[in-house]
Amino acid sequence: MNAAMRYNIQDLLADFLGISSRGNPYRKPIMRIMVATIITSMTATFSYADSIIDKFELDKTLTNFHLGFGQTADIPRCTNCPQPRKSHRFISLIAAYERNLTGIYAQDSTWPGAVFWRMEGGLASITDDHASAESPYLINFSPFMIQYRLLPASNHWGVKLLGGLGFASTNWKDYGGQPLNSTSQFLIHLGLGMESYQDNAPFSIDYRLLHISNGGSGDPNIGINAHLLSLSFDF
Q1: Range of the domain at 42
Q2: What digits encode the pLDDT tens for the residues 10-47?
Q3: Which one of 53, 90, 185, 212 has the fewest beta carbons within 10 angstroms of its own beta carbon?
Q4: Where is the domain boundary, 52, 67, 89?
Q5: CB 139 within 8 A of CB 166
Q6: What is the tally of structural domains in the chain?
Q7: What is the dihedral of CA 74, 118, 121, 132, to 10 degrees?
Q8: Which residue, 15, 31, 52, sits at the end of a domain?
Q9: What gap in Å lies between CA 96 and CA 65, rounded to an integer?
Q10: For 68-82, what is each residue's pLDDT tens digit?
Q11: pTM for the complete prediction?
Q12: How far apart (Å, rounded) are the C-alpha atoms in residues 32 and 38?
């Protein structure tokens, strides 16, 4: 929209609303500022709404990148682990692909939203163990994940719920005083997040509870639990 057209629209709106600027040299700039502010606000609102509608369309696909920081945790408390059971901090990098399976689901319910199938892969590394001779890694591949996005009541933020299963290859087997028994492990993900619907910079803040164990395929099967807080961006 060029400047001349924008000003013509503003003057027409001013006349329509009965606030014509004619005859007052100071009122015209004020009216233009007021109308421009209204138009800008409406444009931003429509932009947010379009972003939401687009994301909740059936078969919509998304790709995103997560940068996260986590810490292992003694939950539930391990009674047969060597004491003290030390927690460790780690950094996590995840790339994910999602596909909308349902479009807007349960529109007449209290919790309308959309179900997304999610697949992710990534790498995590413990950062606070400087005595180890090798880099402590965990390679994550999780193809069986579901993410439920709630249709937001406001145009700015929405809530996400996450759950799923995956696989890991790791040398964290002796970390936290609780052996994992083998390099190959299973993963359980449970999480939630807050997602921004800004078109120019879509992002979300996510929390996840991560469980790592051998799924009973070996003994012992104590496992590791961890908190993970991450910031994600669509690309």
Answers
A1: 3-52
A2: 454 445 444 444 454 444 555 555 555 444 444 433 44
A3: 53
A4: 52
A5: no
A6: 2
A7: 0
A8: 52
A9: 6
A10: 999 988 776 666 665
A11: 0.74
A12: 10
